[in-house]
Amino acid sequence: MSPPRVGVLALQGDTREHLAALREAGADPIPVRRRSELDAVDGLVIPGGESTTMSHLLRDLDLLQPLRARLAGGLPAYGACAGMILLATEILDAGANGREAVPLRAIDMTVRRNAFGRQVDSFEGDLEFAGLHGAVHAVFIRAPWVERVGADVQVLARAAGHIVAVRQGPMLATAFHPEMTGDRRIHRMFVDIVNGRS
Ligand code: GLN
């Protein structure tokens, strides 16, 4: 089987690390900045960064509606941190003054932006992660947490009692940044989803 073409939304944020992680996980990764690139991918990673800025760039580049349409059509997506925020149906503390993060509504969940950030800006810890053997070392940077999930959403991990990783069908999201560690298990999990093997 040829490797699946997995895009990384490359508007802002740590795109390069995700491209490298996806390659190591067996995908053929490409940066996505325009409609034609979005149309060409079998799966999409939405990286960490700033969800408000990414929302504005999505609008400015006329990618918001095409992306929503592809997600609604079942395009597998993995969102990390800001990407998790964007995949939600509802965002709390989304920002103000016309610079709010906009929900792509791909995962039936309510996320609170910068939720951990109000307590401590960034931290690391070892988590149990459903479906993976052995702890995952998780790096959180001004991270969100999930306050509500719908009945079809599977909770994969928690930190300090809060939901920090979820899956709904072909959609995966983590509040932390696996691309910043050498552990490729979460990217591999996503590549397996894209390949229809998981
Ligand atoms: N706080 C950022 C946001 O609201 C997310 C931080 C991150 O992606 N590391 O989008």
UniProtKB/TrEMBL annotation:
Pathway: Cofactor biosynthesis; pyridoxal 5'-phosphate biosynthesis. The active site is at 81 (nucleophile), 177 (charge relay system), 179 (charge relay system). Its EC number is 4.3.3.6, 3.5.1.2. It catalyses: aldehydo-D-ribose 5-phosphate + D-glyceraldehyde 3-phosphate + L-glutamine = pyridoxal 5'-phosphate + L-glutamate + phosphate + 3 H2O + H(+); L-glutamine + H2O = L-glutamate + NH4(+). One of its GO terms (molecular function) is glutaminase activity. InterPro entries: Class_I_gatase-like, PdxT/SNO, PdxT/SNO_CS. It comes from the Bacteria. L-glutamine binds at residues 49-51, 113, 141-142. Keywords: Glutamine amidotransferase, Hydrolase, Lyase, Pyridoxal phosphate. One of its GO terms (cellular component) is glutaminase complex. The keyword Lyase applies. One of its GO terms (biological process) is pyridoxal phosphate biosynthetic process. The keyword Thylakoid does not apply. In the presence of PdxS, forms a dodecamer of heterodimers. Only shows activity in the heterodimer. Belongs to the glutaminase PdxT/SNO family. Catalyzes the hydrolysis of glutamine to glutamate and ammonia as part of the biosynthesis of pyridoxal 5'-phosphate. The resulting ammonia molecule is channeled to the active site of PdxS. This is Pyridoxal 5'-phosphate synthase subunit PdxT. It comes from Mycobacterium heckeshornense. The lineage of its organism: Bacteria, Bacillati, Actinomycetota, Actinomycetes, Mycobacteriales.
